[in-house]
Write a structure and sequence with these properties.
Blueprint: H1 2-32, E1 34-38, E2 53-56, E3 73-77, H2 81-92, E4 96-99, H3 113-125, E5 129-133, H4 146-154, E6 158-165, E7 168-170, E8 178-180, E9 185-190, H5 202-226, H6 234-240
Parallel strand pairs: 1-9, 2-5, 2-6, 3-4, 3-5
Antiparallel strand pairs: 6-9, 7-8
Helix pairs in contact: 1-2, 3-4
């Protein structure tokens, strides 16, 4: 009986340390990059629309907590092993966490999506801004219907955004995960808000899903251009393949 308990404690220790280190690194990146905000003013026009559903691409996840500023916010993070480390880091950065995975809007029973969907609705009802990756594994840069359904059921607008830094590492995995590096320039780019009517039918929801996809692609490309790395947009890289 003692051996399993010791293994669990060791695992908790590793996860806790990893969460602390990730949070500390992200703070280092945030404070050592000179960030610009687009458009200006950035936050003031958003305040009357809050709470918002903040939408961005999966591979750009790590800097997303810093969009929050002083407003209450939560982020959707998957339940897999890497997600646990990210969730712990997010909490240390003052961000609430909803655990579960997004989907294409048709399979809420999988990966805890149904429970996460209900929890996100509660968070929005309690005036938390909700940050959600618009693309779902493993279809990078393709917006799922789930986020459109969340906007329809909650009555809250979607705010497409991107955060880019001039110095970064990018992996060749499905979502082209991007790790921002310190000591450079950064840009936070916001797109036009998208409102989903409560009576939106399938055709309108698909149209808005496509509009969201195009808008996130645009703001991501513009964010990299703002830091002098127009050629480095992951969206353009995918389209060139």
């Amino acid at each position: 009986m003692k051996l399993p308990r010791r293994n669990v404690l060791q695992s908790e220790w590793v996860l806790s340390c990893a969460g602390v280190l990730v949070a500390a690194y992200l703070k280092l990146v945030w404070f050592t990059n000179r960030f610009s905000y687009h458009p200006q003013p950035f936050y003031e026009p958003l305040e009357p629309q809050m709470p918002l559903i903040l939408a961005f691409w999966h591979g750009q996840l790590f800097m997303a907590p810093f969009v929050r500023k002083d407003y209450p916010g939560k982020v959707l993070i998957s339940r897999h092993g890497d997600g646990e480390i990210i969730a712990r880091a997010a909490r240390r950065l003052g961000i609430g966490v909803v655990r579960g995975s997004g989907d294409n809007g048709r399979e809420f029973h999988r990966k805890g999506a149904l429970g996460a969907f209900k929890e996100m609705l509660r968070a929005l009802a309690d005036a938390y801004n909700m940050a959600v990756t618009a693309d779902v594994p493993k279809r990078a840069y393709v917006a799922g219907l789930g986020i459109i359904m969340l906007a329809r059921e909650s009555g809250r607008p979607i705010a497409p955004f991107a955060v880019a830094t001039s110095r970064f590492l990018r992996f060749s995995n499905w979502d082209r995960t991007t790790i921002a590096l310190p000591f450079g320039r950064g840009a936070m780019m916001l797109g036009e808000l998208i409102h989903v009517p409560p009576d939106a039918d399938a055709a309108l929801m698909e149209s808005l899903r496509r509009r969201l996809e195009i808008t996130i692609n645009e703001v991501t490309t513009r964010a990299y251009a703002a830091v002098g790395r127009a050629e480095a947009s992951p969206v353009d890289a995918v389209l060139d393949v």
